[in-house]
Amino acid sequence: MRPKTSSRDPLAHWRSANTIKVLLKTIAEETKNLGKPLRLMEICGTHTMTLHRSGLKPWLQEAGIEMVSGPGCPVCITPDFYHEAIIDLVTSGENILVATFGDMTRVPTRKGSLQTTVPASGSQIKIVYSPEEALELARQNFDKRVIFFGAGFETTIPSIVYTVKKASQQNLEAFFLLAALWLIPPAIEAILSSGEVAIDGFIYPGHVSAVIGERAYAFVAEKYHLPGAIAGFEPADILLGIMSVVRQIKQGKPRVANEYRRVVKAEGNPQALALMAEMLEPFDADWRGLGTIPASGLRLKPEWADFEASKNLNLALKPQKTLSSGCRCGEVLKGLVGPRDCPLFGQACVPDSPRGPCMVSYEGACLIEYKYSAGAKKK
Amino acid sequence: MKQVSLEMGSGGRLMRDFIKDQLLPALGNQLLNELHDSAILPSGLALTTDSYTVDPIFFPGGDIGTLCINGTVNDLVVSGAQPEYLSLALIIEEGLEIEVLEKILLSIKKTTAKNRVGIVTGDTKVVPRGQADKIYINTAGLGRLQGRPQPDKIKAGDKILVTGPVGEHGLAIMLARNNFQMSSRIKSDCAPLLFLLPLWKKGSLWMRDITRGGLASVLAELAERISYPLLVEENKIPLSRALRGAVEILGIDPLYLACEGRALLVVKETEASQILTWLKKNPASRQAAIIGEVQDKIGKKGEALLQTSSGGLRLLEPLTSELLPRIC
Amino acid sequence: MCLAVPGKVISLEKDGVGQVDYMGTTVVANFSLLPGIKTGDWVIIHAGFAISKLDRKEARKTLKLFQELEKLNPSE
Q: A343, A357, A371, B63: which has the fewest Cβ within 10 Å?
């Protein structure tokens, strides 16, 4: 009988407890004769979320697979100096509107968080779900300068810059982008070239891959001889990805497998990539925890300078080390340690009073571990 | 902290800290210190108060008028009291259209009639334009006890029920307030819980109306109050399909979304299935469900555990801060 | 970082904007990153933008794989 995707719940089959059980069983069969435990890194915070929410981690551990979280959380890797610069601006008496995605407003810095900062009269901080909303804000508030603090990886980058293009077409002169745009492949390269972390294979982010395609990860297999699979975000999707990586290890043939073909095409999204190439140029960006990584960030090209917030507003972006003492967020992001290895986890650092962004962001490894691991209260 | 932040009023930890560190030291007494939804007064009366600053004032499924009456009535019901008298205080911004005010008053009238309560005293203030956002309402309610919550009698085996699908008020407000460019059939679940009163004599041990912080926060609060851990099953929690779609798009956990017409009940094990049948006969609680139980096999005292649909175990904590839509 | 849902395109307007349905919720989405989309197509929506078109054939292939795996490992 031909299976049908149901429009009642299109993802039902990928979440079915039965399918999950069968996939776990198959993986356990494959790892039985491997002889050693495996450490696989899932880059993307949304993968970490699914692994925890679905309770897959303990089962995978039983099958000899330890999943390590990577740096795929844009709120986590955006350094504090961005937030601090904005806080200075909104409290300075300038009449501005700052639009940003939700979690960003709760990142704790030495100057407080965007959420607890009380803006000076006239200024406001607004939460938006899409870059389009930020643009709409600019249209409705033409008497104010609107800064869109847009952070994201390749999944979100095309949408963010498209908004700038639209602002230009609509002559919205008071709309500015404070961009925190990060690239995944350079981060993977940085982790691998440092040699600090022992990883046996990767689960690549499905939706980033929908934009950048399969070849972007080829260097991992060719230069570092490590296997990897692009995976989607339902429990069954991740398990298919893990299954592929395990098989690649057994066959001794590392490559970039695509286990999310219903969404990811080999060439990615050419339209999105062309837009990025048109408007953005790479630079050596400063990542929280990972330090400066060559060609790992994107910024607006000089011809788009009119929309660059740091060039048109009094934004002092001062790169510096800003993690509070004891916070090991940086090492968590690299996969060097897990959340529970941090002395602050569950004690001084809890969702109510986070010490670092990994406990703030819904994609942060520490928050996910805390929220979804029963018994997190007792360390 | 030198200035009051929005966080302090959002119902989360910062608000509780404010109450504990500033309010109670200044004002505390034996009754206030209990921090119940309603104060149980000597002579068998219960008293409660709430202020309503909802934005927008009209939303799918209700308005500030229906809210300000149902909310206070429900606080009395879950404390075991039959609501009898209400006070109504209005703080109105200069310039509010009379037509808008009349609509709200009509809602209040209809809702008080539905709840068989009377507004017996009140106050009206008008403040200059810009010094309030359209209208704020405070209601206080007085009721007579029909039964008493008995959290100390709750033991392993007692069942946990909800009276219907959760999260709809919170989502309706979120969608109405923000420009998410999404449309949904979701309406606020704002409704009276008066129909639950008879359950105080039928085996109900504890009730809470699920408001800010959602189901998860109530469960966490319950766990803190009783002597046993509790375990609920994600698969058993009623959620409408429309809500499930919307929260996935926004990346929100529906267990933390507010309701305004749903209750969580803890009932004696022996009465549970009868109570469920009784609830399901009522159109207001047709989708009521037993979602879990108080138990002593898994977890520790003080823990509210959720078994996820994939079989994992999750610890539920109270809402820590204003729910934000997640984006990568 | 990859929060996105699969939805069905129910209407397309000029200017690259349209509406997508996911489990009864309608989302306004921008299709400028996906030329050639038609109503009835399934797309992945992220932050208000359609970033990829769903390949239904590939989806069915995966579902068939699940079925085959279940046959080899019948549930107890």
A: A343
pLDDT value at residue A352 = 77
How many separate domains does chain A show? 3
List CB contacts (< 8 A) between A162 and chain C. Answer: 30, 32-33, 49
From the list A105, A152, A362, the residue facing B251 with the nearest CB is A362
Provide the residue range defining the domain that includes C49. 5-72
Q: Write the CB contacts of A60 (distance below 8 Å, at least 6 apart in sequence).
A: A24, A27, A51, A66, A67, A242
State the pLDDT at residue C68. Answer: 87
Average pLDDT, chain A: 89
Q: Does residue B307 surpass a pLDDT of 50?
A: yes
> What are the tokens at B36?
């119940």
Q: Which residue has the tokens 């660059």?
A: A308
Buried b (16+ CB within 10 A) or exposed e, A116-142: bbbbeeebbbbbbbbbbbbbbbbeebe
Flag if C33 and A275 touch (Cβ within 8 Å). Answer: yes
Nearest 5°: phi and psi at A248?
A: -60, -40
Superfamily of B37-145 according to CATH: PurM-like, N-terminal domain (3.30.1330.10)
CATH number of the CATH domain containing C55: 2.30.30.140
pTM: 0.87
Q: Give the rounded distance of the alpha carbon of B71 from its chain centre.
A: 7
For residues A255 and A250, give the distance between their C-alpha atoms in angstroms, rounded to a whole number: 12
Place of tokens 């249209």: A139
User: B151-315 — its CATH code?
Assistant: 3.90.650.10
Q: What is the pLDDT of residue C53?
A: 95
Query: B137-191 pLDDT, tens per residue?
Result: 999 999 999 998 999 999 999 999 999 999 999 999 888 877 677 888 899 999 9
Burial grade of B26 (CB within 10 A; 0-12, 13-18, 19 or more) = exposed
Contacts of C18 in chain A (CB under 8 A): none
Residue ranges, chain A, pLDDT below 70: 1-8, 320-324, 374-379
The A residues from 110 to 129 touching C (CB cutoff 8 Å) are: 129
pLDDT for C27-45, tens place per residue?
A: 889 999 998 999 999 999 9
Total Cβ atoms within 10 A of residue A45: 31
